[in-house]
Amino acid sequence: MADVLPIRNITPNMKNWCCLVTIQEKQQVTDSMGTPTKKQKMIFYDSEGSRVEGIIFNADIPKMSPILQVYKKYRISNADVRNIPEKFQTSGLTMQWVITARTVIEEVSREEDIMPVKFSFTEFADLAQYMDDKSKSVDVLGVVISSLDKKTISKSTKQSCVQKFVLLNEESQTVMLSLWDNFLNNEGQILLNNIQTYPVVIGRRLKVNNYNGVSLSTWFDSAVLVDPPIQEARELKNWTMRNTKLIAQLIETKAYIKYNPELFLKADQKTTLICNVSLSQKTALVKANISFEDIFQKYWYMSCGKCNRATAADYGIEFTCNSCKEKSPAVPRCRFDIDLSDGSGVIPASIFGDLAEKLLTFTALEAMDHFNQNRELPLEFVHSSLKTKTFLLHIKPVQAQLADARQRYTVLHYSELGQEIDSAQLIGQPDALPISAEHRVQTAQLLTPGESSSGSKTRLRLADKFDEAETTAIDDFATATDNCSKRTKLG
Ligand SMILES: [Zn+2]
């Protein structure tokens, strides 16, 4: 009979040993760069809390992987023990047990113990500092309260599946976690099957992305632990059960689909000087003044109330949208151009919807009424008050170039500096609907360059690609012709 040893006493080339271990986590099966080798890594721990990496290769994966289930306890003997070269070490593990079809593994039937493992979780509020940094990943703890629709995305040669899950923490903050491909087939399926019971997850080695503020995504070496037997997870589960009302409300209002400024737009965030904002950045954060005094424009367009795309339908007329195929009445939507400036430069940007109304201090309906009556919006107060304010803006480049060749941007969110960031947008807005990715309104015909010469400062911004903080990754364009009959009134 082999000796039962703790993990720390098991060394390379040792014979005749056995060890009682529990599976802490399993990664997905991955390919090794540039080789046909497939491997699957896992982490084992023992009753002392020592940990070791388990690894299975190639043809042994389908045989051995199903035998080793997360959180279960096994007696493993005589696996091949190796040191992990330093550059391949992850999670501080230096030793590796190679599990093959010859390895002796017995399940030890026992109650699920609380894992004697300590994770260092990143708070949701601290995620922004890891954003889009390829060298960094985070561990987070959260409860899954809902999921969005699964999407298939074609990336050059292969198709990928992704689904977003809504993670909630005890501070009632939400963040989206995207599970890709194998994560979706494995842990994602478990989450979907149990979503009514609000599974608690620990996401390990997740990437922090810049999407609707801050979001999380699985990466090749991530691990997703569903309802792990860990003290903090149990506590969160308990909190969840005491707060089902709040959760039901969050799910009802879908507030999590909206931008999460409280996680992202913080006064101490690193910002980019306007002169340094470049197209290579997917998004940028700038500290700038806003002005639109010199821009002659319309402030609204007629839109589909469901997907926000432009339509030629008249106000209140029910129509079937060519983009989202839904039938709903046409509604005016606020949208206008602004200049963003700091000491280093000026760039043009467009702002849409609620954000635009808030900045304009008029609703789209009011803007439309003024336009229809050929009256100017009384904006003197707005213009003068903007002169005294500075804003933190999250902007994103618009892909399509326009005739004037100036790169344009869309405002994803903004907050006034020197004020608390407005989180009212986060809660209690029942109208949060998925917003279409791109909009285009051909208002170019509204004004010809000749007409603009009446005011030397006047610049034309009406021809523009309407862009939005999207909740889909689909880059299709909606083209609609706006009603041009009002152009003489504006001129
Ligand atoms: Zn629509």
From TrEMBL:
Keyword DNA-binding: yes
Pfam families reported for this sequence: Rep_fac-A_C, REPA_OB_2
Ranges for domain Replication protein A OB: 133-226
InterPro entries found in the cross-reference section: NA-bd_OB-fold, Rep_factor-A_C, REPA_OB_2
Keywords, ordered alphabetically: DNA-binding
GO molecular function: DNA binding
Ion transport as UniProt keyword: no
Domain Replication factor A C-terminal: 297-423
Name this polypeptide is given: Replication protein A 70 kDa DNA-binding subunit B-like
